[in-house]
């Protein structure tokens, strides 16, 4: 792999970590579109572009999820009784959704990804927050919520925070606990998603030689440490910079990257 790709993956990992620490937002929205373009330039066949980008992104989220979980656990912000019941649904939904993703064409995945990111961007721009209007459901209800959150997370390579936090807030969970609990369920999402994309990509022809299923190992190895390194810096900057305005800029960036991904897969 040429030096230019090393630099590109390191830079991407750093940007993703910085944004995660600064805005509390997972990196899938940035990683997937940019990885799609990088893989295309590296000669990955068109039909594998989105799958390899999604799988690599899910794997890259694993170390960041562990770091985030431990941080929130130390602050006693994780509601483990919620994690206990929502995690099985998360695991099943995420893992099974990777099999659906493997059956979908690259263009279909790109359209779904772009639509979800556009909706998430609009929610960020409008600063829409659900009002707490109900109590937490029972174990079956939490498991069902986990299925949905995990399934969508696997198809767009996110840690689930954009769905888990609003859901828990709606169910009268205090915001710090909702964020901490979301960080905890982000780990099973990342693990199940990465495993599913590995399983579904094994034996597929046309993938880069250093791939493990739909996970491109050089990109993962280069992105992960710099993402972890930059996240604390982003967290410190969050106390000094106008985060509200930065979120709006980030929302616009997500829109642009999502549309760029669609353009890339339809013109490749």
Q: How would you describe this structure to a colleague?
A:
It is a multi-pass membrane protein. It holds the Pfam family TauE. The structure is a single chain. It contains ten helices and two strands. The chain is mostly helical and 268 residues long. The chain has one domain. The chain has a two-stranded antiparallel sheet with strand order 1-2. α1 (3-23) packs parallel to α9, α2 runs parallel beside α10 and α5 packs antiparallel against α10 (243-267).
Question: Tags for this entry?
Answer:
Probable membrane transporter protein, 2 strands, 268 residues, mainly alpha, single chain
Q: How would you briefly describe this protein structure?
A:
By secondary structure, the chain is an all-alpha fold. The chain contains 10 helices and 2 strands.
């Amino acid at each position: 792999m040429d030096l230019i790709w090393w630099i590109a993956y390191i830079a991407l990992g750093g940007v993703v970590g910085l944004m995660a620490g600064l805005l509390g937002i997972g990196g899938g929205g940035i990683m997937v579109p940019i990885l799609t373009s990088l893989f295309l330039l590296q000669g990955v066949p068109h039909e594998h572009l989105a799958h390899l980008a999604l799988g690599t992104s899910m794997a890259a989220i694993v170390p960041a999820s562990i770091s985030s979980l431990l941080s929130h656990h130390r602050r006693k912000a994780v509601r483990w009784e919620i994690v206990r019941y929502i995690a099985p649904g998360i695991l099943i939904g995420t893992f099974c959704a990777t099999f659906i993703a493997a059956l979908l064409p690259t263009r279909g995945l790109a359209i779904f990804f772009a639509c979800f990111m556009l909706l998430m961007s609009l929610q960020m721009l409008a600063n829409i927050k659900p009002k707490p209007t109900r109590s937490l459901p029972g174990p079956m209800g939490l498991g069902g919520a986990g299925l949905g959150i995990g399934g969508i997370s696997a198809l767009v390579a996110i840690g689930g925070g954009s769905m888990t936090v609003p859901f828990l807030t709606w169910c009268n969970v205090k915001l710090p606990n909702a964020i901490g609990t979301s960080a905890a369920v982000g780990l099973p999402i990342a693990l199940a998603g990465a495993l599913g994309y590995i399983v579904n990509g094994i034996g597929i022809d046309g993938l880069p030689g250093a791939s493990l299923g739909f996970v491109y190992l050089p990109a993962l190895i280069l992105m992960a440490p710099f993402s972890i390194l930059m996240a604390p810096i982003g967290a410190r900057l969050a106390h000094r910079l106008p985060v509200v305005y930065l979120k709006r800029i980030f929302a616009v960036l997500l829109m642009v990257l999502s549309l760029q991904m669609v353009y890339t897969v339809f013109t490749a």
